[in-house]
Every structure is written in C-alpha cells, then in structure tokens.
Amino acid sequence: MLTRLFSFQKSRRTVCQHAELHVGLLYSQNDGQITCYASCQPTGHTFCLPVRLQRGNASVMTIIAVANSKGGVGKSTTAVHLAAWLHEQGHSVVLADCDSQHSSSEWISEACPGVRTVLMDKPGKILDELPQLGQEADYVVADGPGSQTETSRALLLRSDLAIVPCKASMLEVRALAKATDVLRQAQDIRMGVPKAIIVLSMVGKNYRLTQDMRDAAKALDLNMAKTPLILRQIYADAPGQGAVVWQMGARGRQAAKEVRQLFANLLPEARRSRKPKLTSKKQQRSAA
Prior knowledge:
By secondary structure, the protein is α/β, with parallel strands linked by helices.
C-alpha cells in the first residue's frame, strides 16, 4: 500500500498519530502536504495515518462509519437515519455509500435531499477521498459493506467513530469477535482510533439486556449504547416510502423518539436546539 498524503488547512488540521517522532528529516512538507518516511510508520505497515481531525483545539468525530461485516443487522437503517438527524440539527452532511448495493444513497436522496451522497465502494477511493469529504462537510456518515473486505478495512482506517449495529442475542454478540477483526486491526494501527460503540438493533419489545451480553461486549472492549432500536415494521417500510421514521406520521412517533434519543446520546456535541424542518421528496411533491 502506498504512503498516503494528508492536507493541512487553516480552519482544520490533520495531526499524524506519530507526530512525536517528527524530528529532523522524518517527514517532508510540500504544497501543504505531508509525507511520512519509513521510520515514522508502524512496524509491518507502509502507511501513516492521522489521529483525529481537529477544529482549533477541539477534536471532533467527523467521519462516522456504520460498520459490521455481518449483513442484515440494520447498517443502512442506522446510517440513513443518522445522516438525516445530523442534517436536521443544521449540520452539513455527506452520506458515503460504501456498499455495492447502493441502497442507502438511494434512500437518503428521497428522504433527505439536503444530504449529499457519494458512492465510494472501492478501497483506494475511500483511502484517497474520504478525508477530503471530512474537510468539506461537518459530518460524513459512511454506510459500510456487509462483508469482511478490503473496503471495510479502508473505511475503518479513515473513520473517527465506528457505530456497530448488532442484533440483540448472545449468538450475535459473540459473533462480533469475528465480525470486528478488521475494526481491531484498524484500532491497533491507529492507537485506538476509531472509537467504537455497539448499537443493539431489531430488539424485541420485551427484551432485557442480560449481564452475559454486557460481559461479552466488555470482553471485546466495546461500549454498548444505552438506547436500542426496537424491532418495528416501520423501519422496514421506510425505505420503500423514501422516508425516515419521523416523516411517517403518528405510526412513526415511537421509533422517531428512540432514534433521536440514540443519536443525541452518541453525539451530544452535534445536537442543536433549533432544527430545520426536514421533508422528504415525497412530502415536497405532495405540498406542490
């Protein structure tokens, strides 16, 4: 893999995770770009990665990957609703669709036209272009593929936060040990980045989180979000209607409440008191 270049800009700067090693001639800077030499690279790897995008002195979770190599766990549902929620808070948002099926980009284009979409299902494109998207928007939400691929690896090497949807069962939580191999590799290379958190999805209404499940998540060194996503028909209906749950009237009220609570807990710094009205393309056509 080729050594990558990272841009420095006045408003936002990227800091190399091995910055403390940058003395003498360990790096070169040309036209605002920095190239790390071999002596600055992690043992056994041929690239050097940034720790965190920073605005001023404050670190921010700019690039958020929704990732689990196991399919059918609610990745696209989580990614689309997160992108729409961030847009609702008044942020500029890009949804990077890293899955070959491109379902999330089609869904968000109908539900929330104000969210920019980018198709990014090749590892090289993710490594080269995802950081630039993070420079252009307040948040990038990346919907990861449902397989253990180099695309997954590239995505996690470029993300600040990984949200890991997981069905609520001991079998599923235990399966995360295999499904998160790539995540742990990325964290090892990047000294703990991306931060990761499990979101339980498709949870039965009478479900109770057992201590065994908490212990299984703890053994993987993964935190678990307090708010689960309940198994509801409305989540299955939303893509076909080109909407997110809070655009679907009274039947979406409970789902909307839990989704907003989940994201407010995960990203408290993103929450704003004044929110723009969010309308789907379908609602816009009805109003016309």
